Amino acid sequence: SAVMxxxxxGATMELPYDYLVxxxxxSLPLVITDPGQSLADRQAALDDFYTAATGGxxxxxxxxxxxxxxxxxxxxxxMAQAGSSGRLTVVSSHDILGGYPDRIKAKxxxxxxxxxxxxxxxxxxxxxxAPLVAPEKGSQFTVKLKSGKEIPGVAAYLPSFVKGxxxxxLSTTEGALDERTKKVAVDEFLRCQGNPKVFxxxxxxxxxxxxxxxxxxxxxxxxxxxxxANSIKDKPLKAHVEGP
Length: 244
Description:
CATH architecture of the largest domain: 3-Layer(bba) Sandwich
Order of helices and strands: EEEEHEHEHEEEEEEEEH
Number of helices: 4
Organism: Octactis speculum
InterPro entries: FAD/NAD-bd_sf, FAD/NAD-binding_dom
Domain FAD/NAD(P)-binding: 6-209
Strand content: 15-25%
CATH topology of the largest domain: FAD/NAD(P)-binding domain
Largest sheet: 6 strands, mixed
GO molecular function: electron-transferring-flavoprotein dehydrogenase activity; flavin adenine dinucleotide binding
CATH class of the largest domain: Alpha Beta
Number of domains: 2
Keywords: FAD, Flavoprotein, Oxidoreductase
Structural class: alpha/beta
Radius of gyration: 21 Å
């Protein structure tokens, strides 16, 4: 078996495999590096966002998942340390940290409240679909929501929601992807239901677990490693047990 991949230079190459583990996560439209971007360009992009976020204007984060909450906390701390008069607004189409225990949701809300942040749920940003920093220092723009509400005086907008799994590279691998979700549909062994040579973990896998976190993924990785070893030795596979 083989899979086609693209290098950062844009070249396409075929990689043969005996077993394939998909662990490419999901797509987030954050301030992330592009393939081939230099370290200097990457640092400049982050510096521009930091300057805008701490310069006195408001900051809007789109999304209410674990990544959005982590980003929100970091930005709140940076704004406080810089003495910024701006406010942070989190806009989520659902309750924040959906799927997480209530005590964790309550703690996240407590921290955001402590920084004076605003949380808007059951709504989403419709005016921007990519990270945006005000074009000039001190300038601001307006973020529009699906409900019709507008948030003026914004210096930086950062979408931090999942746009889907990073599985395009598996589109030509027969039986690998679930048609609806485009994730790798796996069985109780975390083995692809349509291709026994493919395993998957994390955000690109169609796994029913209470939430996605490092401890969960660590347990998934251990299951996959053990099952590939068992497959090579013609031993029975081990059913996955959800991590803590």
